[in-house]
Every structure is written in structure tokens, then in C-alpha cells.
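Work package 3, deliverable 3.1, input record:
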Amino acid sequence: MNEVLKTISGRRSIRQYREEQIKDTELRAILEAGLQAPSGHDSQPWHFTVVQKRELIDEINAGSKTAMRKSKVDWIAKLGAAENYNIFYNAPTVVILAAKKDAISPLADVCAALQNMLLAAESLGIGSCWMGFAKFYFSDQPSYKKIGIPEGYEVFYALTLGYKPAGWKAKPRQRKYENFYRMIK
Ligand SMILES: Cc1cc2nc3c(=O)[nH]c(=O)nc-3n(C[C@H](O)[C@H](O)[C@H](O)COP(=O)(O)O)c2cc1C
């Protein structure tokens, strides 16, 4: 297996982080990897907000959980109410991914960038997790203003980054289905 394939199969969502902040050079390499993603019509509609200020990360966590508690989906409402649950798993860095609303495919473009960033992080030995719950915080305009998301952009997802706990090892992936692909030649 080459290094790219090893990185792809070794990546896992990390939900526990060391306190130590990742290096700026590592962060920049991950952000740049996001910007190398494909985008519909090469529109490159991305905007990434890096949050490393603990109080702000805590505020987004608390705001997301308040909104999650009102979810009609039972397990989401329960996680929102769980006192010890931190949606960012106390990661030292959170990246909020937005894209221009009027782009041709903003959601797909954000997802492509995010996946590149997860793989870049893994290649650098940095833990990461794709974060859907952060969207709950961005359900109103005041939160967009508070975080300073540029006008005309929509937040779709966030990403946590931080060093993995010592001794962390990826477990082999359990496949849920047999027929994920077939060949027509
Ligand atoms: C669209 C999307 C949203 C996700 N949101 C969350 C989330 O809010 N919290 C979380 O802990 N994991 C989240 N994940 C991570 C998935 O739970 C994870 O990718 C899945 O369980 C497979 O595990 P792996 O990433 O270790 O391969 C999300 C993944 C995707 C693709």
C-alpha cells in the first residue's frame, strides 16, 4: 500500500485530544490541503474560521447543545442534555467551514475540502473529527455575527483538530454491508 492509501485507511474520528495546541505550520498545511479540493465549476467558495480561543469553543459547544436539546431526533436531544458531553471533545482547535451560498455546489465543496483536511491531518499524525453538531449553533444570524462569518456565506460543518492521546491505535473498520460496489466491464 502506498502512503496515501495507508493514510486513507488509517484515518479515524478522534474523540479525545491532548491539551497541547497543534503547531501553526501543521494547521496551515491542513488548511492549504482543504484549498486543494475540487469544487463545482472551480468556484472555490470556501471560508474557514479557525477557533483556538477556549472561551469561544466552549460557547459554540454550549450553544449547539442548547439547540440540540430541542431536536426531534431522540439521540441528538439526549446528547444535547448530557452534562459531560462536549461536542468538540475538548479539542484545542476547531475549524468552522463555510461556503458562499450562491456557489453552484457549496455543500459538496465544503465536504470535499473537509475530507482533504481530515486526510492531511492524519498524514501529519494529528487527530481530527468531522463535526456535524456545530451546525446547531449556526441556526441564527447573531451566531454568524459573533463568529464573524462573512456576509453571504453559510456554515455547513466544523472540524476538530488536536494531537491524539498517547498510544492511540486505529481499530480495523467493520464493514456494515457486503455489496458496496460491483463491476460492469
Ligand atoms: C456528515 C458527517 C457528520 C458528522 N458529525 C459528527 C459529529 O457531530 N460528531 C462526531 O463525533 N462525529 C461526527 N462524524 C463522524 C462520524 O461519526 C464518523 O466518521 C463515523 O462514525 C465513522 O468513523 P471514522 O471517522 O472513525 O471512520 C460525522 C461524519 C460525517 C461524514
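The CA atoms of residues 19 and 128 lie 14 Å apart.
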